[in-house]
Specification:
Elements: E1 6-12, E2 19-24, H1 29-42, E3 45-47, E4 51-52, E5 56-63, E6 68-73, E7 78-81, H2 86-97, E8 102-104
Parallel strand pairs: 1-8
Antiparallel strand pairs: 1-2, 2-7, 3-5, 4-5, 5-6, 6-7
């Protein structure tokens, strides 16, 4: 069986100068988590308690490189964010860009300013 490849964009948040990682396109959220979380643990980060609302699930991670959040929602969006820790977002993006299961796609930066 062919392994799913996940597209993502490394881009600024809406109305923010902070960079984030947005997983784009059609994808299986469970398969994304099963592929992504071992990579995140590989940078010595561990998930904390899951925060769930009716529309969103946020999983905070803490570790050697500081805090960041993985979030997904009922509309099929998934993000990695860290408002106060941009170096960890850069580190994760570098790891994803070197992994054959993740495909960086260009972001339209005019939409995110």
């Amino acid at each position: 069986m062919k392994e799913e490849v996940f597209n993502y964009q490394y881009r600024p948040g809406y109305g923010s100068g902070s960079m984030l990682i947005e997983f784009t396109g059609m994808f299986n959220v469970e398969a994304l988590r099963e592929t992504l979380f071992p990579i995140l643990k590989g940078i010595e980060s561990k998930p904390a308690n899951i925060i769930e609302t009716g529309e969103q699930r946020i999983i905070p991670f803490h570790g050697k490189y500081g805090k960041f959040d993985y979030s997904e929602d009922i509309w099929g969006f998934a993000f990695i964010t860290a408002e106060d820790n941009q170096p960890v977002i850069e580190r994760i993006e570098c790891i994803l860009s070197d992994n054959c299961r993740f495909n960086p796609t260009p972001a339209d930066l005019t939409k995110h300013s």
